[in-house]
Amino acid sequence: MDPVRFFVYLQLLVTIFLVVLLWCLYARLRKQEFFRWWAWAWTASAAYMATSSIMLRLGRAWTTDKMLAVLALEVCGFVQVPLLVFGAWSLATPDMPTPRWRKLGLALGLTTAAILYGIVYVLRGEPYLAYVVRSAPRHFAVSAALFFCAVVFYRQWRKARSSAAFISGGFCFLYGVNQAVYGVNILGLMIGAPDTLRPILGFSSRADSVLLALDVVYIYGICLGIVLLLIEEHRRADSALLESTGHSRLIAESNTALQAEMADRNRVEQIVRESEAKFRMMAETVACGIWIHQDGRLRYFNPQVESLTGYSREELLSIDMWTLVHPDFREEMGIRSQARLRGDAVPSRYMFQIVTRDGETRWLDFSATTIQYEGKPAVLASAFDVTSAKRNERHIKERTANLQALINNSPLGIAVMDANHNVQLCNPAFERMFQFSQSEMMGKNLDPFIAPGIDEALEITRRIQSGQGVHVTTRRYRKDRTLVDVELHGVPMVLEGRLVGCYGIYQDISDRKKAEEKLRNLTFRVIRIQEEERARIASELHDDVSQRLGVLTFQLDQVLQDSLLAGPEFTKTLKSLSTIAHQLCSDIQQLTRHLHPSHVEIAGLVSAISGFCTEYARQNGFEIDFAHSRIPDSLPQEMKLCLYRVAQEAIHNAQKHSGCRRVRVELIGAPESIRLCVTDAGRGFESVGARYGEGLGLVSMTERVKSLGGQLRVRSQPGNGTVVEASVPLARRAVAG
Hints:
With 737 residues, the protein is α+β, with helices and mostly antiparallel strands. It contains 25 helices and 15 strands. The strands form 3 sheets. The chain has a 5-stranded antiparallel β-sheet. Helices cover 63% and strands 16% of the residues. The N and C termini lie far apart (146 Å).
C-alpha cells in the first residue's frame, strides 16, 4: 500500500478514536462545553479525513462524485476552525460566546468554504493550482486555530499547574506547526516546486509520509492530554471525597438538621420555580408591558415591551433605558426611580410618555415596585399603552368644552334630561325664559314646572322616551304662571340602542306669534278692502257704465232698423258700431263678475266654482272635472270668497303652465274644515316661484288661506304633475275687523 494512503487511513482511525473519546467525556463530565465543541471540531476533522480518503480513489477527473467530495472537503475543513476556537474559548472563560458570535463564526467558515470551492471549480483544469487553493488555506486556518488552543491550554497550565493542559497545549502547538508546514509545502506547488520540503527535512520521497505520521503522533498526544484531563477530574473528585471523609462525623451529626434544611430548601426552590414559571407565563401572555430594570438597563422584559417601544430584544438589552422616556419626563422619572430604590415614598402609579423607535410618542399608565434581582435592588414595572385613551379623553374634553360653550351662550333655552326626563342641566337662556333656576329643577321631572296639567306635554315626553324626535309649536308656563309661546325641539339621546337622555330646545316665539297675528289681521284687512274696492268698482260698472252702454246699444239697434231705408254703406257702419257695443257690454259684465263674483254670495260656493269651471273650460278649450261632497249650505262669506279665488288662480295656472288639457277640482267638506284640491297631470316644476310668479300667484293664495287660519300646500315634481291643496278651518280664530 502507498505510505501516504496508509498514514491517511491511520490518521482517520486515530481521529475517530479522539472523536469517540471527546463525546464520551462530554457525556461523562456533566456536559462541559469544552468537550462538546471539541467533539464537533474533531468530528469535522474525521469527516475531512474520510473525504480525503475518498478523494484518493476518485482520481483527477471532475465527475459529479468528485464535485460533491470537494464541496464536502471544503465545508468539513473550514467548519473545524471555528469549532476549535469555540472549544478553547469555553475552556478559557465561563462566558461562552454569544449566539451572535457562534453564528458569525460558522457563517464565516461556510462562506470561506463556498468561495474556495468556486475557485477550485474554476481552476479544475489546473490540478496543482486547484489543489493549492483547496488545501493551503485550510491548513493555515487549522494551524491558527491550534495555536489559539495551545495558548489557552498554556494559560490553564499557568493557572492550575495542570499537566494535562500542558501536554494538550504542547501537542496542539506541534500539530499547528505541522499544519503550517503542510501549507508551506502545498504553496510550493504554485511555483513548480512540489519537493520544496524534502531538502529541509532530509528525506527524499518520504516527506509527505513523515508529515502524516507526525499528524498521527500529535493527535495521539492530544488524546493523551484529554485522558489526563479525565484523570485529573477523577483525582479532584477523590481529593474532595477524602476531604469530606475527614468531616464525616460532623456531617453525620448534622445530617438530620441538614436533611430537614435541604427538604425545606427544596420546597422553597420548588415554590420559587413554580412562582417563576407562573410569573413568566403571566408576563408573556398579559396585554401590558412588564420589565425589570437595574442600573439604567433592562434586565428582563416581556414581548409587549417590544411592541410598545418598537425595538427588538437585542436593541432593548443594549440601550440605556432612559433614552426611551420622553425628554419632558426623563428627569422626573430618574428622580423617582432613585427615590424608590432608596426606599423613599414615591407614587406607585402615574403616567408618562415614551418615544418609540419610529419617533412616535405614546402614553403609558405606569406602576412599579422595588425587588431584589440577582442580589441587587431593582425595579419591577408594568405599563399599559393608554395613548388612544388619552387622545380620546382630550377629544372628549374639547367636545365637552365646545358643547358647554354652545349651550351656555345659546339664545335658545336648552334643558338636558336623563332617560327618566329628570333635569340634569339647563342653560341661562332657559332660566331667563321660564324664570326657574337650575337648582330648583335639578334631578326633577321638567313637565310639572313648565307644563302642569298639559296633556300634550305628556304625549311629547312619551314620544321622546320611545326614541322619536319632536318638533312642535306649543305653549308653556313661566314661574309666574304666565303662558309663553314656544317652538319646541325634543331630541332623544340614544347610545347603543338605549335611550340615555334627551335635549329640550325651546325658542320663545311670543313676539313672532304676535307679529304673525298682526300680519294675518293686516292681510285679512287688505284682502277685505281689496274685495270691497272691487265690489264698488263692479257696482259702478254694472249700475252706471253697463246701464248706459245698454241704452247706447238699444239706440244703436233702433238706428240700425231705421237705416235699412238708407244706403247700404250707412247700414254697414251702424252694424259695426252695434257689434262693438254688444262686445263691450259682454266684456264689462265679465269684468264685473271677475272683480266681484256676486254669484258666490247669491248662488253659493259650489254653484259659483262649478259655473266658473264650465265657463272657463268653454272659453279656453279646456277640460275641468269638478267634484264636491259634504259642503255646508251656509259658509262665511270670506271663506267662500277665499276658496273661490284659490280655485280661480289654481285653474288659471294649471292651464297656463302645466301643458296638459285636463284638470280635476275637488271640494270636500269635513266636520272641522273645507278642503279644496286642484290637480293636474302636467309637466310639474321644481321652483315654486318659477311657476307662480304672475297674477295672484302662490303668495296671494297663501296669504288668503292663512288670513282665515288655514293652510296651503303645493306638491309638484318634474314630470309628475302638480297638486294645489287649500284647507280652511270652519271654526277659525276671530280676526280683528
